[in-house]
Design a protein that fits this description.
Layout (H helix, E strand, L loop, with lengths): L6 H21 L2 E5 L4 E10 L2 E5 L7 E4 L3 E5 L4 E5 L4 E7 L5 E6 L4 E5 L3 E6 L8 E12 L4 E13 L3 E14 L2 E16 L4 E12 L4 E17 L3 E16 L6 E17 L2 E11 L7 E12 L4 E12 L9 E12 L1
Antiparallel strand pairs: 1-2, 1-5, 2-3, 2-10, 3-4, 6-7, 6-10, 7-8, 8-9, 11-12, 11-22, 12-13, 13-14, 14-15, 15-16, 16-17, 17-18, 18-19, 19-20, 20-21, 21-22
């Protein structure tokens, strides 16, 4: 008679025990099935602007996945789900067929949608770090002629909650050249956005700008605007805004300080699902309420090309116009910047 405790039997018993433990653990993870048939198992942390963030046990860094390449999704926790037709749901995601996803709400209802119609996912309960994002980039140029040196630093940090978000954006430029006064342009912005509906949101902004080209020692502005998405998909969004701004301006020229009220009319186009390339264009006009006939314009365009390991190359241009500038200052100023950065 064969001994039932042979090495072969011991191995089979060990394997069965491991599978018994592993199957429940595996069931607690999320999974994504891609159009090419590949499967990724891990934790679906979020999805925004066409990119899903997935954490796995076999990698120290999170994976960034193109949402449009996903064929099926199975998730275990509840998410805030926003669709391109400006509807919002709270529930668990599950795919019964290719290209489709069901949202099972806490009330027991089930909402059906196509995967490419989902434009935003955020866990109802997420950690602080999962809701945090940050970027930093630097640039430097040196020209032999006139010993021209230009150094730029830019960065941003943001935090997203279910109904609101906030971010800080900083940009610094310092340029020196023989026989020319140094050129400096420094700006910082603090934004707070509150989502009123799936389409409408309110935003409060504090900003500061120094600009030697326009002899502006400091412009400190507070803005309150209402904004609306005109278009929002997994490839980009287009939004418009309108509101009021209060400015406190101090100049290095003979022009006295200005304390003004202005209107705000603006638009933003954000394209972010063109492979590794993303493009953000913003434009805003500021007609003055307190200085008859004065108006300003700010336009910016920033392109970013993603590299491996969360590095990127950035190209950007900013343009400012004031039809009534300070005495001896230029009406317009523009800056072209290049940089190499990293995002988290």
């Amino acid at each position: 008679m064969n001994n039932p405790t042979t090495p072969h039997h011991v191995f089979c018993l060990f394997l069965s025990l491991m599978l018994t433990v592993a199957v429940p653990l595996f069931g607690q993870t999320d999974s994504l099935v891609f159009k090419n048939g590949d499967v990724m198992v891990g934790e679906l942390k979020s999805m925004d602007r066409g990119v899903a963030i997935v954490s796995t046990n076999y990698s120290d860094t999170d994976f960034k996945i193109s949402w449009l390449e996903v064929r099926r999704v199975h998730a275990k926790k509840s998410y805030v789900v926003t669709t391109s037709d400006d509807r919002q749901y709270f529930g668990i995601l599950h795919s019964k067929s290719d290209g489709k996803v069901s949202v099972r709400t806490a009330q027991g209802d089930t909402v059906e949608s196509t995967i490419d119609n989902v434009v935003y996912l955020n866990p109802v309960e997420g950690t602080f770090l999962e809701k945090l994002s940050a970027t930093i980039d630097v640039g430097f140029s040196l020209t032999k002629a006139n010993d021209l040196r230009q150094f730029t630093v830019g960065g941003a940090i943001g935090y997203n909650e279910q109904k609101w978000s906030t971010d800080i954006v900083l940009n610094f430029l310092n340029s020196t050249q023989d026989n020319v006064d140094p050129i400096r342009r420094n700006e910082g912005t603090l934004n707070y956005r509150n989502n009123l509906t799936n389409t409408w949101y309110a935003m409060a902004t504090l900003s500061a700008l120094t600009n030697t080209e326009q002899k502006l020692d400091l412009r400190f502005s507070t803005q309150l605007v209402g904004a609306r998405y005109l278009m929002r998909t997994n490839s980009g969004y287009l939004g418009v805004k309108a509101g009021v701004s209060r400015n406190f301006e101090k100049y290095s020229s003979a022009t006295g300080d200005r304390n003004t009220w202005e209107g705000v009319l603006g638009a933003e186009l954000n394209l972010y699902n063109a492979g590794d390339l993303s493009l953000v264009t913003t434009a805003a006009s500021y007609p003055s309420f307190t200085e008859s006939g004065r108006w300003r314009v700010d336009i910016s365009c920033d392109g970013k090309y993603d590299l491996p390991l969360d590095f990127y190359i950035k190209l950007g241009v900013s343009f400012n116009y004031d039809n009534r500038p300070a005495a001896g200052a230029s009406q317009s100023d523009y800056v072209f910047q290049t940089g190499f950065g990293w995002e988290w």
